[in-house]
Design a protein that fits this description.
This protein has six helices and 14 strands. It is of the alpha+beta class. α1 crosses α2.
């Protein structure tokens, strides 16, 4: 007997996954995003120019601004699971909701990892060592100030600065009086239990992730990334989409959600790598 699922259900499942996925992605909207057709996307980069003194009745002096571009290559990803929670066209809605969360969480974390991997691969010279604010220190205000100074020196715009840190790094930062005291900071960090903005940075905290997350080495050093929104590019070749298919050989339904994306550092001067030693 043929087993089928109505188009209405597939549409509903896809829309629910999309909603949950957008809600669970930590880095949504924090990079320069482009939707493209094809296997690559090119992000343009325009060099700096300097104004010169205008001398009457002489030829104008062009700034000779340079133009370049960086390329992100699309990679295909899928989050799929066999499930017997479906009985022909009838669906247990509670189980469907659970599966929506599992699938959307998997693709959301993977989309974040695409950006994190591109940050790790960037070749910028802006670095903050783990000896700032003490020897072999975790994330602290002194390191944030050093990162801010590095970006200020490169004339990185103040609006749109982001820091991605691990939960262990954020815990260390919350131990600093300058972060939690209302004498220094209007954000009630001890009340909310988190830091959302400080020194002009928007903070994104992530925990351990099977996809990799923020890697830690054998010396317990973890790189925390400070970057400007326009310094990172994310190309989306195929937006998140879902489908549900019945597989007779498995006597189950295959629920899958997929996307294609690639990320690349557009301007390395807008990225600062902060080394934090975790105890």
């Amino acid at each position: 007997m043929a087993v089928s699922i109505s188009n209405a259900f597939v549409t509903l499942f896809d829309s629910e996954v999309k909603q949950a996925y957008q809600g669970q992605r930590a880095l949504a909207g924090l990079t320069r995003e482009r939707t493209v057709e094809g296997s690559t996307v090119k992000f343009p980069k325009i060099g700096k120019g300097t104004a010169s003194i205008r001398v009457p009745q002489t030829d104008v002096v062009p700034m000779s601004t340079t133009y370049s571009q960086v390329t992100a290559t699309m990679e295909d990803y899928i989050a799929a699971e066999y499930s017997d929670i479906f009985n022909q066209a009838k669906v247990n809605f509670q189980d469907r909701a659970e599966l929506v969360q599992v699938v959307s969480g998997a693709i959301g974390r993977r989309m974040d990892q695409v950006v994190i991997d591109a940050l790790a691969a960037s070749s910028g010279t802006n670095t903050v060592s783990n000896d700032i604010g003490g020897t072999d220190t975790n994330l602290n205000v002194a390191k944030l100030r050093a990162a801010k100074k590095a970006m200020d020196a490169k004339n990185v715009p103040a609006e749109g600065r982001v820091i991605i840190a691990h939960a262990n790094n954020m815990d260390s930062l919350l131990a600093e009086t300058a972060v939690t005291s209302s004498d220094f900071n209007t954000v009630k960090a001890l009340v909310t239990g988190e830091v959302n903005t400080f020194l002009g940075f928007r903070f994104v905290s992530i925990g351990d992730r099977d996809e990799g997350g923020l890697a830690i080495d054998g010396s317990s050093d973890r790189i925390v990334y400070a970057f400007h929104r326009d310094a990172m590019g994310l190309g989306i070749g195929m937006g998140q989409t879902s489908r549900v298919d019945y597989i007779p050989e498995k006597t189950s339904f295959l629920v899958a959600s997929m996307f294609s994306a690639g990320s690349v550092a557009i301007d390395a001067e807008g990225i600062t790598k902060i080394t934090c030693r975790e105890s």
